[in-house]
Amino acid sequence: MNNLTFQESDRVLVLGATGFVGGRLIPELLEKNIKLRLLVRNPDKLSHDIRDTAAIEVHQGDLLTRQGLNEALRGIHSAYYLVHSMGGKSIFRNTEFAEKDKEAARNFIAAAGSAGLKRIIYLGGLGEAADRLSEHLRSRTEVAEILSSGKPAATTLRAAIIIGAGGASFEMLRHLVERLPVMVCPRWIDTRIQPIALRDVLSYLIGCLMNPETAGASFDIGGPEIFTYRDMMQQYAEARGLARRIIIGVPFLTPTLSAYWVDLVTPVPSGIAHPLIEGMINEVICRDNRIDDLVRIEKTHFREAVRMAFSEENSGPGIHERGIK
Ligand SMILES: NC(=O)c1ccc[n+]([C@@H]2O[C@H](COP(=O)([O-])OP(=O)(O)OC[C@H]3O[C@@H](n4cnc5c(N)ncnc54)[C@H](OP(=O)(O)O)[C@@H]3O)[C@@H](O)[C@H]2O)c1
Questions:
Q1: Which atom of ligand 1 is nearest to the CA of 39?
Q2: Of the given ranges (11-15, 50-54, 87-91), which has the lowest mean pLDDT?
Q3: Nearest-atom index, ligand 1, CA of 159
Q4: Does ligand 1 come within 6 angstroms of the Cβ of 157?
């Protein structure tokens, strides 16, 4: 055992607890009897169940203003960093998220170093720097670099689209395929992607906390299948019992035009859709599978992940109320 080993008495800090991934991670951690502290901008966004749980401390704060940050870190051994500034309902291009995300990460790493935090577990995005990454994917990598530059040992998990109800990318996929039997898409529709089930992401996040050998390293995580975006849409249609979609890739459709189209057809505002669509230009597949030796999970197939997203949506509280993140 070394000082990176998680102990039963440790309380874990979760940043991004009101988000898509953070919100689902909390019940899984509680199930393992892990005590939690949440730093949230708006505690009212948390369900009553969460706020009333004895094992959870809720701190109000903001990573950009640093409000509440030092208090939230006090006595904490490990923190999950599941923060993203891409939310918001603007239909205009979101030009600020990357800078905000970097500033939030810098503020966090500075405070974490002084507070003596030992571990950070960050969920970021796949994509290779050599591929001229989109602003969104580059921003995920920059945040990983900032979080890895401080005293705590940072674990980065890099994922492509996460298949789970309420995730912005999944909701975009879902509403496009459900609503449009014929789709005109940007030519990047044939870029390869390796989606991952939300359940598997949560297993990796918890597995990393439990295994100190994952500290201080970056791992690619993905599901068992690699698709093109076009195949993924057809697989989604099949999983949902829909007729095969007609998908036409055209060279003139720009990310901006596509984002306005997505804004019109789906509940995902173009301010979020734009950076996600721009990211379609980059291949997002795992380059290594080192994580498999350290955190053993049974990987969920895409169609099963889609089925789970719908069954979870129909049974779990809070997802409809929370809307798209
Ligand atoms: N969703 C996917 O398909 C996907 C795929 C691959 C990787 N990831 C990665 O997973 C991580 C989490 O993504 P997500 O989809 O769960 O994001 P999300 O739903 O947009 O949640 C983001 C969270 O960050 C919080 N936050 C933003 N700015 C903050 C600030 N200044 N101070 C404190 N909290 C702040 C938000 O709080 P508010 O509720 O107050 O806004 C929210 O809880 C991200 O790093 C993302 O890149 C996601």
A1: 33
A2: 87-91
A3: 6
A4: no
